[in-house]
Amino acid sequence: MIQSQCSSCNHIVKAKAxxxxxxxxxxxxxxxxxxxxxxxxxxxxxxxxxxxYELDKCNQCEGLWLQPDEFAVLTSEFDVYRDDxxxxxxxxxxxxxxxxxxxxxxxxxxxSRRNFKSISGVLIDSCLHCGVWLDKSELQSIRxxxxxxxxxxxxxxxxxxxxxxxxxxxxxISDVELMEKMLNKYSLKRMFFRGF
Length: 196
Hints:
Layout: E1 3-6, E2 12-13, E3 27-30, E4 46-50, E5 53-57, E6 64-66, H1 68-74, H2 77-81, E7 112-115, E8 123-127, E9 131-134, H3 138-147, H4 150-185, H5 188-194
Antiparallel strand pairs: 1-2, 1-3, 4-5, 5-6, 6-9, 7-8, 8-9
């Protein structure tokens, strides 16, 4: 049975949920302690210690499985800037060749694939509730991206995109206002009662 527990009030819901129905806090999926298997090699993942966290690692391909909260902390600016191993001279890698989607290490459903922060060049596989799969050295690449100011660049990129969308919307509104004025000027009622 799938259950989620609130991280604030510890309320338990018998379903997958993102927010608590009682306090609107964040929910964490309560997982049974069943073994996780590598999405690539299909072998059981082993516990690996990394910066005070116990992550699941594949001994064959060296991929890592991270819970959502672990991924959020390990890719945060606060944690990255305290790490001397992060290299601020980040060079964006080329995107890898197209490949099939991978199954989740926990629930076995297909994960989604996305470019971390849209501009990093690091493709990550993620399951909405279970966690994130990172191939060998992708965690360090993400941490280097963050150390190089990549989150600020991603935010700037997002702001520029929103500004362009607002400008396009403003142009469309202006066109609609002009069309409305034209339709009101030449409305059928006005033409019927006043003539041309």
